[in-house]
Amino acid sequence: MGRLNGKIAVMTGGGAGIGRAAVEIFAREGAKVVVAELDPDFGRSTVEAQTAADREAIFVETDVTNEASVKAAVEAAVSTFGRIDILYNNAGASFLDDSATEKGDPEVFWKTLRLNLFGTWLMCRETIPHLRAAGGGAIVNTTSTAGIVGLENIDAYSSAKGGVISLTRALARQLASDNIRVNAVAPTRTLTERATRINNARPTGTGGEGNRNRLGDAMPEHIAYGALFLASDEAARVTGHTLPVDSGFTSS
Ligand SMILES: NC(=O)c1ccc[n+]([C@@H]2O[C@H](COP(=O)([O-])OP(=O)(O)OC[C@H]3O[C@@H](n4cnc5c(N)ncnc54)[C@H](O)[C@@H]3O)[C@@H](O)[C@H]2O)c1
Question: What does the pLDDT average to over 56-68?
Fold first, then answer.
């Protein structure tokens, strides 16, 4: 018996990194997964790996920052599987041209907010009516240690991920009476291909140093297992919270 048996899960950014690991883990635990991913090659190869293992997943090309695209993705999920039980908002990124506020470029600020905060908000807006129609469900958002402590010299990303924490709390209060739980996972520095490339290219003193992680950098699976708990019925009385999977980085 899988921990998500029979659940329908929509996963944004499921084509690479943490999202790809989560697609694998959620599907292995019995969920049917909708991979709502921007990159068609990433999305298709993630789904092919699942179908080759006799698990159910579909790819829907999705840009979480685009209203029409988000609506179409949610409709595709419902028309394929009949309902949605879980929304995992994983798509997000920090950009190399993020900076200290004094040096900040408004375009970088808005593209960061648009992907990380607006994209999460939009996916929630379109999915909530379907979670309600299903009699309840779970949303797992993705923040970052940057959203908890505010990491140095990536101020747009820290702002966006802080916003995700507040959105998570606000939605949790509003939706508890509909049996919809809303939580967030907060990864530390995680060794995904893109994040590793960006972190290596950043100047020292930017984005928190990996060596401040008490247990070391995380692997994508470490974060995905945190999200799995929040998405599963094991977390039936957990809502409005952010779970740091951060090797102790934000602990006292
Ligand atoms: N890796 C880290 O060190 C780290 C640390 C803290 C938080 N996070 C957060 O975890 C999440 C996943 O990070 P990751 O390192 O696995 O990223 P990643 O870049 O490895 O994968 C992100 C996936 O999202 C997709 N994507 C990008 N823009 C999209 C859009 N507009 N619509 C739909 N899909 C889109 C990408 O194509 C990619 O497949 C992000 O929200 C990130 O901010 C990551």
Answer: 98
- 195 touches ligand 1 (CB under 6 Å): yes
Instruction: Yes or no: say if 185 and 120 are a contact pair by the CB < 8 Å rule.
Output: no
**CA angle in degrees (0–180, nearest 5) for 121-62-5:** 80
Ligand 1 centre from 20 Cα, in Å?
Answer: 10
Q: Note the helical H segments in the chain.
A: 17-28, 40-52, 67-81, 106-113, 119-133, 145-149, 155-175, 193-201, 220-231
Task: Write down the pLDDT at residue 200.
Answer: 86
Give yes or no for a contact between 225 and 123, defined as CB atoms under 8 angstroms apart: no
Query: Is 225 among the residues known to form the active site?
Result: no
Ligand 1: centre distance to CA 177 (Å): 31
How far apart are the CA of 42 and the centre of ligand 1, in A? 12
Extract the tokens encoding 171. Answer: 């939605």
Query: What is this structure's pTM?
Result: 0.97
- Domain segments of the chain as ranges: 8-239
Judge whether 187 and 90 are in contact, CB under 8 Å: no
**pLDDT tens digit string along 93-122?**
999 999 999 999 999 999 999 999 999 999
Catalytic residue selected from 86, 157, 160, 182: 157
Tell me if 45 CB under 6 Å of ligand 1.
no
Protein residue closest via CA to atom 7 of ligand 1: 144
Tokens of 201: 């290219």
The domain 8-239 is classified under which CATH number: 2.60.40.1910, 3.20.20.80, 3.40.50.720, 3.90.180.10?
Answer: 3.40.50.720
Smallest CA-to-CA distance from 134 within 172, 180, 202 is with 180
